[in-house]
Design goal:
alpha/beta, two-stranded parallel ribbon, 13 helices, binds 6-O-phosphono-beta-D-galactopyranose
């Protein structure tokens, strides 16, 4: 039947640093994302230099100029019938240095206007508080999330948001893909993008990164507490990049290795945020690697008392794992790379296409956490080219069609799902590569990897397709 519930939140997801541009306007401070160049330095090969080089191109500085064009873009989303829009707030627009005494009124006003525009267009706002873009000054001053003081700094920011926008926003997501932080240990640069840590050669990176994660977990619990105290009916979500990893073969050694890999990549983060406590296997891990975390009794009590209200996750693809990885070809992926799956097709960017993996993930997550779920990102990155004046993005349509069908099956299975946000309903800068030409949109933006283009918006074939899916509540899926 492919039918979705009447009130199902169909929509799309974007992130401030990948679409707004205007990186020095309206009193905005610099964020770590403003130091990312295109191509090589990326969140998947994490790291950046805390210095702008005038000879380099920084794709996020102008991006698609959503800051000035959001009305036009939201009108297009509304034309597709979006019932929700996931957007993020750039922390450095509200607190330019992260820990300023007073918030920046111009930044607050911008999001006031943006939220009003969403609501006028009948979209439920879904707001990410921090999406890969902490204020850069916090890196210098505190060494990012490695410093416990960041919890207080973050609380002040969150309090400001809840006070100002709490009357209009019900769904909040604290950190985008918090599990991406584990990649910071692998960075080839001194500065880590997710945790904002400045690594010195003598540092134990695991120690620092897991300490940073602990501070983020406490910050999440504080956010849930504040959210419940300050707003009626607010839903505070925790989010991961969920990449189910299957055993490459049924060799029990492969199965065991896969089990551990899944925990480390994503499950650990969800276990802590949803259950409000550190799982036993993490304590064993800390002992094994001699990592000593500073965690107070109050921290642990707070975390237990204030777990997240719903589980938000991105889903793009799946991976495989083996006890003998050298025997198999590898593949790139969203946030994590791994081994290829011989049963799946791959996108032009080397990501597997696994719609059934989404139904599997939905059931798996609901079974384990028994909290409402929200697919806050799912999409297909591709090179799009015009043919006879039109972008015929049939591969994207196929991908989304198949993933939505599996989503409908999961709902039929009994999973409690709040909504579905297609990632990048309008082309925007890629988080992973800084490319503009890796496109996800229903709306094409005339801009290339070097920053050339008019920024003109053009509907792709998928635009009308998604409009029909929403209008029929999934009835048009094939
Ligand atoms: C997720 C991020 C998004 C987004 C998406 C697609 O990991 O939350 O910000 O960009 O991946 O990835 P990419 O842009 O690298 O293709």
């Amino acid at each position: 039947m492919n039918k979705f519930p009447e009130n199902f939140l169909f929509g799309g997801a974007i992130a401030a640093n990948q679409c707004e541009g205007a990186y020095r306007e309206g009193g905005k401070g610099l964020s770590v994302a403003d130091f990312l160049t295109g191509g090589t330095v990326s969140s998947r090969k994490p790291g950046f230099q805390l210095k702008l080089d005038e000879n380099k191109y920084y794709p996020r500085h102008r991006s698609i100029d959503f800051y000035h064009r959001y009305k036009e873009d939201i009108a297009l989303f509304a034309e597709m019938g979006f019932r929700c829009l996931r957007a993020s707030i750039a922390w450095s627009r509200i607190y330019p240095n992260g820990d300023d005494e007073q918030p920046n009124e111009e930044g607050l006003q911008f999001y006031d206007d943006l939220l009003d525009e969403m609501i006028r267009n009948h979209m439920e706002p879904v707001i990410t508080i921090s999406h890969f873009e902490m204020p850069a000054a916090l890196v210098d001053k505190y060494n990012g999330w490695a410093n416990r003081e960041m919890i207080n700094v973050f609380k002040r920011y969150v309090h400001t948001l809840f006070e100002r926008y709490g009357d209009r926003v019900k769904y909040w997501i604290v950190f985008n893909e918090i599990n991406a932080a584990v990649n910071d240990v692998k960075g080839t640069h001194e500065y880590a993008i997710h945790t904002g840590i400045h690594f010195r050669p003598e540092d134990d990176r695991y120690q620092l990164v897991y300490q940073a994660c602990h501070h983020q977990f406490v910050a999440i619990a504080e956010t849930v507490k504040m959210g419940h105290e300050m707003m009626d009916g607010a839903m505070i979500g925790g989010m991961v990049a969920f990449i189910p990893t299957y055993a490459r073969t049924c060799d029990p050694d492969d199965v065991m290795k896969t089990f551990t890999a899944n925990r480390k990549k994503g499950v650990f983060f969800l276990d802590v945020m949803s259950r409000g406590e550190y799982p036993y296997y993490f304590e064993t891990y800390l002992k094994k690697y001699g990592i000593q975390l500073e965690r107070t009794e109050e921290d642990l009590k707070l975390m237990k008392q204030y777990p997240i209200d719903y589980v938000a996750f991105s889903y793009y693809m799946s991976l495989t794992e083996s006890a003998h990885p050298e025997n198999y070809p590898t593949t790139d992926g969203n946030v994590f790379s791994g081994l290829k799956n011989p049963y799946l097709q791959y996108s032009r960017f080397g990501w597997s296409v696994d719609p059934v993996g989404l139904r599997y993930s939905l059931n798996w997550l609901y079974d384990r956490y028994q909290k409402p779920l929200f697919i806050v990102e799912n999409g297909y990155g591709d090179y799009d080219t015009f043919e006879n004046g039109m972008i015929q993005d049939d591969d994207r349509i196929q991908y989304l069609n198949d993933h939505l069908k599996e989503t409908a099956k999961a709902i039929e299975d009994g999973v409690d799902l709040i909504g579905y946000c297609e990632w990048g309903p309008i082309d925007l800068v890629s988080a992973g590569t800084g490319d503009m030409e890796k496109r996800y949109g229903f709306i094409y933006v005339d801009l290339d990897n070097q920053g050339n283009g008019t920024l003109k918006r053009t509907k792709k074939k998928s635009f009308d397709w998604y409009k029909e899916v929403i209008a029929t509540n999934g009835g048009s899926l094939k």
